[in-house]
Amino acid sequence: MSMDAIYLDGISLLGPGLPDWEEAVAILCGDKPAELAPVTVTAPALLPATERRRAGTSIKLSMAVGLAAAEAAGIDPGGLANVFTSSGGDCENCHHLLDALASSERMISPTRFHNSVHNAAAGYWSIATHCEAASTSLSAYDASFGAGLIEAAGQVLTSGAPCLLIAFDTAYPEPLFALRPVPFPFGVGLVLSPTRGAHSMATLGLSLTRDPADTLSEPPLEQLRREIPTARALPLLQRLAGGGAGRVVLDYLDDTRLAIEVGG
So where are the chain's domains? Predict the structure, then answer.
């Protein structure tokens, strides 16, 4: 599989010690040490008050990176087709649901129930931004970032219109953490376009390969890359932060990786 090149018009990042793309650039380029720190996210003012109260970490995180990427691209988020990808969705909400089902009461909050569907983040996004464009929500376990990037790029090339990729993962509490040790929330937003525009910062050409995935020399960043599915994007983000052209290989499937040719 190989795809024609598409343009990257906007980018955002939020993770431990990576509060936004601007600060992350210095860390990814090695100008500032990487230090893991708690991730703080708040519900955006765009959400009505009722939805803000109901929003969990996955909603807050996905909306934060989506809005930041759209702002960086200088585009109205309400008009963007979007792809949401996450390995597990709202992990904390899943924990609370299972905890309730394991109790003697077995009573589930309606809010927890409606937040449990995998496209809940996309639903909150459409409420906040009034977006009526096509929306896709997917999951591919550890391959979720790669699958989301392929899906979003495919939509750009077939529709001839920009698409917003929102990739995110949240942390599992115990006892689920013992089986699925995702330690931190981590989110990435990318606005992809079929044509060069005023905000275009790079071209991306996708293909599949059996070459080994790129790793990161900074131990805290490599830890994130290995432990959080969305953080599989970090070698690509490091290349983009440095502003140079070149080839990046990301973890994808067990025997297949995702190669990305980054151009100017």
Answer: 9-199
3-state DSSP assignment of residue 37:
coil
- Three-class secondary structure of residue 31 per DSSP: coil
Residues 6+ apart with CB under 8 A from 22: none
Span 174-206, pLDDT tens digits: 998 899 999 999 999 999 999 999 999 999 999
| 8: helix, strand or coil | strand
**DSSP-H helix ranges across 74-135:** 91-101, 110-114, 120-129
CATH topology of domain 9-199: Peroxisomal Thiolase; Chain A, domain 1 (3.40.47)
Which residue, chain included where needed, has tokens 């500032």?
32
Residues 70, 49: Cα–Cα separation, whole Å: 23
- Give 260's strand partners: 206, 248
- What 48-55 contacts at long range (C-beta under 8 Å, 24+ apart), as own/partner pairs, is 48/127, 51/124, 51/127, 51/128, 54/111, 54/115, 55/124
| Structure confidence by residue, pLDDT tens digits, 110-142 | 778 777 888 889 999 999 999 999 999 999 999
